[in-house]
Amino acid sequence: MLQRKEMTALLINVISLKMLLTFPRIFIINSGNAAWIQALYNTAAVFLIFFVTAKLYRGNKNVIQLAETAGGKPLKIIVGMTVFAVLLINFSSVVRIFPESVKSVLLQNFKLEVIVITFVIATAIGAYIGLQSVAKVNYLFLPVAGAVLLAFLLLLIPYYRFSNIMPVFGQGYKAIFGKGFNTVSLFSDILFLNILLPHCENAGEARKSGVKALVIGAGISVIILLGYCLVYPYPASKEFIIPVYQLARIIHLSSFFSRFEALFQFVWSILVLLYSSVYVYTMCYVWQITFNLKFYRPLIFPVVLISSVIAMVPNSMLDLISTEEIRSLIVYPIAFLLPLIFGAVSRRYYGERMRKDESDEKV
Amino acid sequence: MKKFKTAVMSAAAIILSLTLTGCVGKEPNEIAYIVALGIDMSEGENYEITIQYANPTEISGGEEGGKAGSAIIENISVQAPNLYAAIGLANKIVSKTFYLSHARIIVVSQEVAEKGLRDITETFIRSDDLRPDIYLAVSLDGANEYLSAVKPAMEVNPAKYYQLVYDKNSFMGIPAGSAKDFFFGIETKNFDSFLPIAGVVGSGGEDKESQKSESSDAREEGGLSGAGADEKGGGSSESGGEESDLSEENTKQSDAPENERGFEYKMKDYIGGQAAIELKNKSESMGSAIFEGDKMVGTIGSIEGQMFKLLMGDYKYSYITVFNKHTPDEPVTLKMIQGKKPRYDIDIENKKINVEMFLEGDVSSLPADYNIESDIEEFQNDSGKYIGEDCTRFMSDFIKTHDSDTFRLKERCKQKFLTNKSYDEFKESVNFKEYDVNVTVDFKIRRTGLVMREGD
User: Fold this and answer.
1) Amino acid B82: pLDDT
2) Which residues, including other chains, have CB under 8 Å from residue B397's CB and lie 6 or more apart?
């Protein structure tokens, strides 16, 4: 069982980590210097979705368990495999993007395969240790990462230029409020809260964790995008693959402090490892409950292997990044709709059970 | 099972601690650290690229301490189509492997700058080795000649030398010259850039000399130098530099016109290579190269460079000389401080640019027997007026002479638009040459040093 604060920290990590990789570029390409407004808009949208889902949801069964209740084993397997596919799409891109980024900025002379293998081994060890341990380490490390982010934003102050976020609506209202809705996928990992519901003390605690994680995760995303837009003028800003790394590179305080990216890379690597461990664990857990398996650990190796093979499918970083938006388009409707649909199902199921309990009492 | 687990974990811990703690790749003593790169045109399509690297056996090491001067750096020149090709080629020539992450400056020749720096910015922006804040500078004497002339007399670390020289930009009349800002300018088309001029003191033969003279003439023709002072009956005047011993005096010093306007009165308007007469280190940085997009289109001297910094709000403090009508032969020297950024008001409808600058000064030096305290208010108002007039003239002439938006006027209009589309349309259509420029200065004399004489 996870404590509320551990679950909150876990969700903050899974929501915000995308902002440390290539995801901000999608915002910038769509809205230009108004990317931060788009992130605010997405936050408002995700809160609406979350509150509707939370209003509908009853009990602390996740969508897979509810699918069994509603449609038996076939539906459970369909839903379980759908959730697994969504997680696999998300995770396989990280398995490729992170080692590619490490190769570009840290280990240029290493073979990519070596970095990928080392990364997935570390991830597998994390998943093997178990969710509780990873959640506790994540809870301990998150304040350190927060402090680094804060220092990072403060050190960037001399580089902020207000004119860089002007004109205020960037690429236009249609781009921000129309096509910009798609980047709500930033928050698609809130699906974790649903899948890991059985690990929470109760639904109320899970809800509180969700709200807090969304507020903090959204805050981090908006601040990162705003910081990036303030430093890098559009359209130069849309050219960089890893915006946050690009920000870290420009920090230079006189002659005594530069190369902040070394600290950034340290925090970045640990956060990605924690994120990936949680992902592998969750994928194994989805498989475990879908097929009523006793242990999840034997699943770690196949899950890691499948993820690595899929990750290596794109020929280059170019292919990978160009398909990132499409991947997020596939993922977010499922990630938000499944809890919404099964929230309604849970309401009916729990409502019936409550009515049945009441009639039994009368008899 | 428990014993097996412990054994596996222990073995893993030992193996990882032995294998993951070593250096990966090159050891430091196998690396040659590049501190500067020079790019000149060569025959054909290739560039002549000069790689200046630190000589690790001579810098700040051992009990005797480091050496200085030419001993701490080595230069190697190769012909290649771009920087990385040059480094690849140079790696085959020297025993160590070149490493770019300590490079502090890329110097390009005037010819290369006039051809355009787009290719070079493309290289550094993609590179993980080169820092985004690496300096760019233009050498009118040639990049190779400038780098060969660099002999840091007071530094044991060559990278530190460049850092100290070019970081001082806020105190002197050279622009910041950051490669990152240059890239932003050409990529966004929101503004154009100035780059510092890196010069060689007293270098070159006739060709270089005539080139410098042309450059001075061009500045005067463009009305951008300190020449043509109307009210003070000045006009450009070349100081008759002494032509005594060419090996010791800077022969180019005579090229710099003396300023007869109120701001920086009696000072020479130098560009790189014209100022110092120091013998050991013949390199210096003064003046600015004007760019339109990625192409160099002209130069301005150190005085206009200071005005540019004032108008951009990048000026921290420095000593300036000001004309004083009570002592017309001798200027008053002030320590001038720019407390806050200038305020720009661009009226698109009426085509007017109003700039309000906020400056303060401390009296540092004045002619003997002159009591400034009795006329302090008058002097303060006059100084403000001179600075305002000179800056108005400089900015106005500059805008009318060049298509270069180095004052970032387009960028300053950004907030008047709601979307990038409408702003881009404005950028395409605006012609600042039609705009009237007016610079006003709110100037206050704060202190008169440690002395305050009684008024007459």
Assistant:
1) 85
2) B222, B223, B224
- The tally of CA atoms less than 13 A away on the side-chain side of residue B403 is 11
| Matching CATH number, A4-362, of 3.40.50.10860, 1.10.287.70, 1.10.555.10, 1.20.1740.10 | 1.20.1740.10
- On the CB side of A167, how many CA atoms lie within 13 Å of its CA? 20
Summarize the confidence of residues B74-101 as an average pLDDT: 86
Among residues B376, B395, B391, B372, the alpha carbon closest in space to that of B441 is found at B391
Task: Find chain A residues with C-beta within 8 A of B25's C-beta.
Answer: 109
CA distance B393 to B378: 22
CA-CA distances (angstroms) from residue A64 to A105, A290, A354, B392?
Answer: 40, 7, 21, 73
Cross-strand bridge partners of residue B308 = none
Kindly tell me if the per-residue pLDDT of B119 is higher than 90. no
Mean pLDDT, residues A340-361 taken together: 69
Look up residue A203 and give its two tokens.
Answer: 């639904």
Nearest to B289 by CA among B417, B196, B224: B196
Q: Which residue in chain A is spatially nearest to B25 when comparing CA positions?
A: A109
With beta carbons less than 8 A apart as the criterion, state whether B449 and B380 touch. Answer: no
* Domain chopping of chain A, boundaries: 4-362
Q: What is the reported pLDDT for A135?
A: 92
Alpha carbons A336 and A328: distance in angstroms, whole number = 12
Query: What is the value of pTM for the model shown?
Result: 0.83
State how far the Cα of A164 lies from the Cα of A155, in Å rounded to an integer.
Answer: 18
Please list the residues that pair with B263 across neighbouring strands.
B322
| Selected residue of B187, B411, B427 to mutate for chain A interface (largest A Cβ count, 10 A) | B187
State yes or no: cis peptide before A167, omega within 30 of 0: yes
The angle subtended at Cα A94 by Cα A90 and Cα A97, nearest 5°, is: 135
**Do A163 and B411 make contact, defined as CB atoms within 8 angstroms?**
yes
Q: How many whole angstroms from its chain centre is CA A282?
A: 13
Q: What ipTM did this prediction achieve? A: 0.82
| Mean of all residue pLDDT scores within chain A | 86
Count of CB atoms situated within 10 Å of the CB of A292: 9
Q: Give the integer Cα–Cα distance in Å for A222 and A226.
A: 6
Residue B133 at interface with chain A, using a CB cutoff of 8 Å: yes
pLDDT of residue A351: 62
- Alpha helical stretches, state H, B402-445: 409-412, 420-429
Choose among B218, B393, B353, B240: nearest CA to B290: B218
A167 contacts on B by Cβ (under 8 Å): 414-415, 417-420, 422-423
- Whole-number Å distance between alpha carbons of B303 and A88: 63
Instruction: Name the B residues in 182-201 with CB < 8 Å from any A CB.
Output: 183-184, 187-188, 190
Length of chain B: 456
- What does the alpha-carbon distance between residue A27 and residue A226 come to, in Å, rounded to a whole number? 11
B171 contact residues in A (CB cutoff 8 A): none
